[in-house]
Amino acid sequence: CCERVNTGVMLPNFKKGRFSVVKRCDHRGSKRTVAVKHINKKLMKRDQVTQELNLLQRLQHPHIVSLVDTFETSSSYAIVLEMADQGRLLDYIVSWGNLTEEKVASYLRSVLEALHYLHNCRIVHLDVKPENLLVAHNASAQPVVKLTDFGDAVQLNSAHYVHPLLGSPEFASPELVLGEPVSLTSDLWSLGVVTYVLLSGASPFLDESAEETCLNICRLDFSFPRDYFHGVSQAARDFVRLLLRTDPGRRPPAGLCLQEPWLQAPPGDGRGRGEGCLDTARLISFIDRRKHQTDARPIGGVRSERWECWEAVLCESIHTPLNFYFFCHGTPRKTRKQAVWSEETKIRIFGLDENAVYVQPVNGSTGAQSEARGPFADHNSRIN
């Protein structure tokens, strides 16, 4: 019952998600300050909330935000969670300053330990991103990073679970973008993107549109600009490359990642790590952009934008590099854009209906057509 906590206030550094808001409250039973996640009943079904609760009730780890209580109001389901008193990781980093590779490695070890625990339980989080990494101070006033928000997490009881892509694709793995079955190492890709952000203050795949971001992800189109990675060690960059591999099977599991030398070096041992402070100025802009990003949307709102990444689906299905002309279904033809895949082959859209995009080669191939059904899922294209 809602009498277990006070009314609560919105937390300035906590989150408003696609389906929920988080408030700071006082838990009357335990006399402790807690974070209450209110999930809108109009936007999420009871069985979806129950799935998250069932997972949380099973989890107990120092680097995972723990479940305290649950209750229900007329308009929302409420999940009462332990309070991470220092807020989001990026806000904590910016406010304290003096970020070093040693600190980044320490934060990542905490997240990897949480993922290693989850993956041993065959649970994949599927929403590893900076907003879901919180910080609490322990009894010694040392920061402890905790993973939160299990709204997208699932138990992988089979090898063929396809997860819908909602909100921004910025931290999504290629398999999630393409509508292919996810794996435990889908979380490791996301952590690779988080690592890149922590080291540089920039996002490796982000582009002007969601479509172009998806393209960059599927093409593994990222680099380490000198201006952004000045003073960042080669070992840190190699760790990012280790996680950002298109093939999920080639990404190391969390347990092996924890054995990487860049993460294993003891405090004060600069072996393989950059010794100076990292520039956090870009992190401020990154945080501001993410706060104003329209990621808090119901499923219908996402689908209505029709930003399906058809070119990535087709490229994966046909197994050939493509120079693909596309436009989002539901928008005028004049908004077509060109996405360069190679100089050898070109195709163009010649038809479109509610469930399929039809394309046709441009460079000399006669009569060949392919069909890709979407969005993202079921990309069993056929060449006639």
From TrEMBL:
Residue ranges constituting the Protein kinase domain according to the UniProt record = 8-263
Keywords attached to this Swiss-Prot or TrEMBL record, sorted alphabetically, are: ATP-binding, Kinase, Nucleotide-binding, Serine/threonine-protein kinase, Transferase
Name the Pfam families for this protein.
Pkinase
* Gene Ontology cellular component annotations, sorted alphabetically: nucleus
Give one GO molecular function term.
Answer: protein serine/threonine kinase activity
Ranges for the region named Disordered are 364-384
**Which InterPro entries does the record associate with it?**
Kinase-like_dom_sf, Prot_kinase_dom, Ser/Thr_kinase_AS
Q: Which domain of life is it from?
A: Eukaryota
Q: Which GO terms describe its biological process?
A: intracellular signal transduction; positive regulation of apoptotic process
PANTHER family the UniProt entry points to: SERINE/THREONINE-PROTEIN KINASE 17 (PTHR24342), TRIO RHO GUANINE NUCLEOTIDE EXCHANGE FACTOR (PTHR24342:SF21)
Name of the protein in its database record: Protein kinase domain-containing protein
Q: Which organism is it from?
A: Poecilia mexicana
